[in-house]
Amino acid sequence: xxxxxxKQCADCPSKDMGIFCGLTFQEAMEVSSTTHTLKFKxxxxxxxxxxxxxxxxxxxxxxIKLTKTGQDGKETIIRIVTHGDVIGHRSLFTAQEFHGxxxxxxxxVVCFIDRNHVLKLINDKPxxxxxxxxxxxxxxxxxxxxxxxxxxxxxxxxxxxxxxxLSDSHGVDLGNGEVQINLKLTREEMATMIGTANETLIRIIxxxxxxxxxxxxxxxxxxxxxxxxxxxADGVH
Length: 237
Description:
Organism: Halobacteriovorax vibrionivorans
Keywords: DNA-binding, Transcription, Transcription regulation
Domain Cyclic nucleotide-binding: 19-139
Protein name: Crp/Fnr family transcriptional regulator
Structural class: alpha+beta
Domain HTH crp-type: 153-227
Shape: globular
Distance between the termini: 48 Å
Strand content: 25-35%
Radius of gyration: 19 Å
Largest sheet: 5 strands, antiparallel
């Protein structure tokens, strides 16, 4: 981890996507005085499961995977977060230890705000409290949707759904109806996200490539036929 020069919230490229989007310029400047800008390299942990929360982390750039390790020692990816997201808030407000581990998937820059400053900001700026409530609600909705999908869809459908979800969050339009997912995940990481074996995921992705639904650009997945991929996700063959 490296400590960078302080970044002004008002100048942050992800400000409009985060919990501080409703602040005025002056209010954003006030928040900046309470933050510490940190940089993590790929593979470094931002926080670890079981540790006590000391504040929240606003993601300025990069991608982070949130994982949870079960009693059997198996690690499961809960979700992928990116610029504009906030992490660490759930444990902070429940006064519980972190339920999972946050690990950088690439070079990541975050702004850290300690617990006391967060609570003061929420008390002084109701708009921040509202944005946090909205985020917690969205996170819960995503978790419920994924849980429902996990129980109702078979493995092929879950893999198609995962690719579509990653496209929505990290997709870049290449033109000609193709979308590239600009996120480097190993096949093992993708498999843990939907609860299947690595070998199964590799086999089905190969099938989707053979059928012309997706392709690969280096380590990045390219969606070539989103309409047909959606049919596979919906169980319509």
